[in-house]
Amino acid sequence: MGYIERLAAFVEEHRARLEELLRAYGPGSAPAAYGRYALIGQPETLIILERVETGPMLLRGLWKKELETVFHDDLESTWGPRLYLSR
User: Fold this and answer.
1) What are the Cα distances from residue 59, in Å, to 2, 33, 54?
2) Which of 34, 57, 59, 75 sits in a 20 to 30 Å window from 66, CA-based?
3) How distant is the alpha carbon of residue 66 from its chain centre?
4) Structure confidence by residue, pLDDT tens digits, 40-72
């Protein structure tokens, strides 16, 4: 199975969770007004969340080398406490 198929399967498996995340933290939500959840609602969020779900430590290590971690931390914490506490 290629990555596109894995990503599609991830979206299908987590559709309700993704929809709730978008409603709660996406554009137009109260938390989004502060800019901390800027990634939520962006197309790349699906890819990032798939990586958070399947390889959280690898993603965190790569992210730290390239980007400010606050956006990763916020996205990871909204996705679920299990992953947020795993670091």
Assistant:
1) 19, 26, 9
2) 34
3) 17
4) 888 888 888 888 888 766 666 666 656 666 666
